[in-house]
Write a structure and sequence with these properties.
Elements (H helix, E strand, L loop, with lengths): L3 H17 L8 E2 H11 L1 H7 L6 H12 L6 E2 L1 H19 L31
Helix pairs in contact: 1-2, 2-4, 3-5, 4-5
Length: 126
């Protein structure tokens, strides 16, 4: 039996290949292939992680340019993984936001050990 993580990783690779070979036959994602991949496979997820006042298209453009480290206008697999990291980190940060918290201090990695229970239990401490 494969673990969920193994399946997720395999799935990531398979999806990358499905889109990377669309045109031309290469192992890269063009920006349009990248946009299509995210819109067809991650639309609800993206809508949750798009920063306020940013359209999905603009967010995808930002992700693409952050990930395109060598600025060649296409993403190789390692650059694609960078994008997934950025989306996952945004989603993770969002998952810790309290309703009504408009997220000014939204990174949880202040360099102190990573306990995620800051202030989520509201009962009095005995």
């Amino acid at each position: 039996m494969k673990t969920d993580l193994e399946l997720a990783l395999e799935c990531t690779i398979n999806i990358y290949h499905q889109y990377a070979i669309r045109n031309p036959m290469d192992d890269y994602l063009s920006r349009s292939e990248f946009t299509t991949l995210l819109k067809e496979n991650a639309k609800p997820f993206l809508e949750d992680t798009v920063p306020p006042n940013t359209s999905v298209d603009d967010y995808i453009k930002q992700l693409f340019s952050k990930a395109d480290g060598n600025r060649d206008g296409r993403l190789k697999f390692t650059e694609f993984l960078t994008t997934l990291n950025l989306v996952a980190i945004d989603a993770h940060n969002r998952s810790h936001k309290q309703p009504g918290d408009h997220g000014h201090g939204h990174s949880h990695d202040h360099g102190h050990g990573h306990s995620h229970d800051h202030g989520h239990g509201h009962g009095p401490h005995h």
